[in-house]
Amino acid sequence: MKFLVDAQLPRHLAASLKWSGHDVLHTLDLPSGNRTPDWRINEISVEEQRIVVTKDADFVNSFLLSGVPYKLLLVSTGNISNLELEGIFAKNLSAIIVGALDMYEFVEITRTSLIEHR
Fold it and tell me: How confident is the model at residue 48, as a pLDDT?
């Protein structure tokens, strides 16, 4: 799968996804880096069919109102350490990729569960 990890999530999360065999960009990899506007992230997501991984509720609004980004993985864990975040992703990665994101365009990950939005 192809992911685009947003600015408020650590670059190491992008690296972990990449190590798992996925095509991953972090906003720091883009020409404008973490200053890349949301509209441009949405544009890249649609053009390259990348799943946006974010904590930013603005992407939820954009998705619900306009159908962009291509797919959305919302991280709703609150403030946790990078190590805890990576652990949550590692524990849920196959469920996220094999199940949820194959069937749904908008998935939310919390500290304890995956929520599949219709």
Answer: 98
Q: How far apart are CA 27 and CA 85, in angstroms?
A: 18
Tokens, residue 96: 């996220």
- What is the pLDDT averaged over residues 35-41? 97
DSSP 13: H
pTM: 0.95
The predicted pLDDT at position 53 comes to: 98
Give dist(CA 2, CA 49) in Å, integer: 7
54-88 burial string, b = 16+ CB within 10 Å, else e? bbbeebbebbeeeebbbbbbbbebeeeeeeebbeb
Candidates 53, 98, 45, 43; CA nearest to 73 is 53
Distance CA 7, CA 34 (A): 5
